[in-house]
Amino acid sequence: MKYKNTFMVRERAVEFKANHTHEESHGITVCCCCEKGQSKLTCTFEKNIYCPNEIAKAHIVVDNSECEVAVKDIKFFVKQYFSIEARGFFGAHHDFRDTYSLQEDHEVGPPAGGRCERAMDINLAGIKYDVVATRKKKGMTIDRSPEDIFLMSGVQPAVSKSRHIFNRYELVCELSYDACTCCDELPDAQ
């Protein structure tokens, strides 16, 4: 007789932080040489630890009062860093590393010389992965249980202490400007 129960193990949180504020200010340069003043981003994240069914919230203040370029877009999103390291016999070594933007919220930014405050949120339950309903075991095709499909389709646990698998999520707030800022470091919060 055998019974299988599906469960998920999550890593222990390092340190819980509530209402963590990140502030960053940068000089904006357009076309690689023309200084257009300072732009300041202040982002207050509600907390730093979330469950897969929660809503991540942030309060964002963009102070563009000393800048001559308008903020075209305020982007608040979840970024996933994922890597798998496989080591085989006889020195074979393979790495897979990728970064994904999973869920996004966009708002219009302030004009040149303006200031704005935005409350932005992301529903983490909206992050879903496609799961194949069958799998192979000992050469035979087996159907996955509804519990397995449910757990595998949602946000996967963050993994940082594993030897071969690394999975991390970050909440990110980025600004894009209404000019060519390709050579410039722009304000962002993570």
UniProtKB/TrEMBL annotation:
InterPro entries: Arrestin-like_C (IPR014752), Ig_E-set (IPR014756). This is Uncharacterized protein. The lineage of its organism: Eukaryota, Sar, Alveolata, Ciliophora, Intramacronucleata.
